[in-house]
Amino acid sequence: MTTSPHDPQTRSGPRPRFGSRLVEAIDRHGPLCVGLDPHRELLERWGLPDTAEGVGELCSVVLDAATGRCAAVKPQSAFFERHGAAGIAVLEDVLRTCREQGLLTVLDVKRGDIGSTMAGYAQAYLADDAPLAADAVTLSPFLGYGSLAPAVDLARATGRGVFVLVRTSNPEGGEVQRAGDPAVAHRLMQQVGRDNAGQEPCGDVGVVVGATLDPVGEQLDLEGSLAPVLAPGVGAQGADEHDVARAFAGARGRVLVPVSRGLLGEGPDGVGTAVESWAQRLAGAVGDP
Ligand SMILES: O=c1ccn([C@@H]2O[C@H](COP(=O)(O)O)[C@@H](O)[C@H]2O)c(=O)[nH]1
To answer: Of 227, 256, 232, 226, nearest to 72 (Cα)?
Structure first.
């Protein structure tokens, strides 16, 4: 793995745990997480070809605009994978650049499988020598929360984290996540809370909870779980900073708010201003612990 003077592991021994690094980044820059979703229409709007090279160019402009202005970056793996090996190479470059520029990365891959295969995914994204190593990845618990253990264990061993899908921002999510009594989402939240026990103020096992949801209807125990929260749905999906403030008051200081289309739609000339403006809007919502 390419190392950098900005990677905490290379500066002073083992990398501090993910929850601590996240709280520090949010404390310094606020909760904005710049979403990197270089889809076809976006590339077109930016005047770039729908190729791996186009994706690379867009990402390079966005990372320069994001550096020093936000807590983290969330590349959406799908939009790199669709270009095959060349797209994956761009994703490797993006993750390396983020390490070098001091940006935390949440790689949105939504992986989940039986334990032995899960160990393979964990090696792919959470091992120190993995070409696609990120600070955290998103995981799907559909095969059972326990099946995610190889990823949770490796993340902890390497100072990294995971974000488990608990209550997603899409309207179809409730069909599965609200089923049962207590609902699936509540039970997942409890399991996450058990894994984070004793890790005040913020654990390494995070949750994905959409900012688009009705907070009254959900009432998940965000506070007691100590989970870092990834809260998608702001911007293009309709939620705003007021929804974020209402839904995540119990998790202040450990909420990351990814914004992608709502920010990148401004095009290459407006991206710096758009990052600054979203950073300001979200800072007051859930920025300080
Ligand atoms: O519940 C979820 C989980 C993940 N996502 C992902 O976040 C971004 C949202 O993009 P926007 O353009 O800011 O709407 C995208 O990568 C999704 O796959 C989500 O939206 N909801």
So the answer is: 256
